[in-house]
Amino acid sequence: MIEERNFFSMLRQLWLKNLFICVGLDSAFEKIPQCLKDSVEATLGYVSVEEIMFQFNKNIIKATADLVCAFKLNIAFYEAQGNEGMAALIRTIAYIKEYAPEVPIILDAKRADIGNTNDGYVKSAFDIIGADAITVNPFFGKEAMEPFLKMKNKGIIILCRTSNSGSGEFQDLEVNGEPLYQVVARRVVESWNDNSNCAVVVGATQPEELEQVRMIVGDMPILIPGVGAQGADVKKTVNAGGREVIIHSARKIIFASDGPDYAEEARTETVKLGNLILICMAND
Asked: Residues of the chain whose pLDDT is less than 70?
C-alpha cells in the first residue's frame, strides 16, 4: 500500500534542509520563450499549447527542484488555454511527483463556495489534478469550507492578507476592534485548524501585517507571495515571517530569460533568492 502524501510532513522535511522557496509555475503561454515554441513545433509539426507549456514547466522543475520547499501552480494560467492548458497542468503535477516526489505541490485556485459545491472543488483539486494543497477564500465561513478542512493530509491555505495593492479595501476593515485580516488569522487558529492542516497567505508587500499575523498564528506555515516581481524586501519578510514560511516567487524566476538559457537562469535566480533568505535568517 502506497503511503498517502502529507503536505505538512513534506514541507517540514524540506525546511530542515533550509529550503524555503516556492517556485510559482505561473506559465503564461505568451511569455514562454519563442525558442521553445519553435522547437516543439519543429518536433511535432504543429503548435501544441499543451506540449509547450509542459516542456517549459518540466525544464524549470528539473532546474530548481533541489532548491525549493514547494511548487505552486496558479490554475488561471492553465484554464486560460482551455483543454490543452488543463492537460499541461495535470501532466506537470504528475511529473513533479515522478521527478521530485519529496516536493509538495500547491494549487493556487482560491476556491470558495457553499459546502456541496466545495465537494466538487475538493475532488477536482486532489483526486483529478493531484495537488497536495490548495488556496481557499474564507469568505463563506468554516461550515462551507468543511469539505476542504476535513482533508487531513492536504494543506488548506487560507487567504488572510494578500499582496495586491488594493488588498486593504476589505482586509483592513475594523471588526471588533481589529482589522479583518487579523480576525481571519485568529479564526483559523482557534476554530478551523482542528486537523492541523491549515496555513495562511500573507503578502510580503505587507511586512508589518505579516509580523502581526505571525504573532497570532504561532508556528503555522505562512505562504508569502510578493517576493520577486512585486519587489518586496526579503530581509523585512524574513524578519517578520520567521522560519515557518513558504516564500513564493514566480515571474522573476521562471521568466528570468527569454532565450534558450531560461532554465539555467531560473536556477540562478532561485539560488540567489535562497542564499539571500538564509543570510537574512542567520542575521535575524
From this structure: 1-3, 228-232, 284
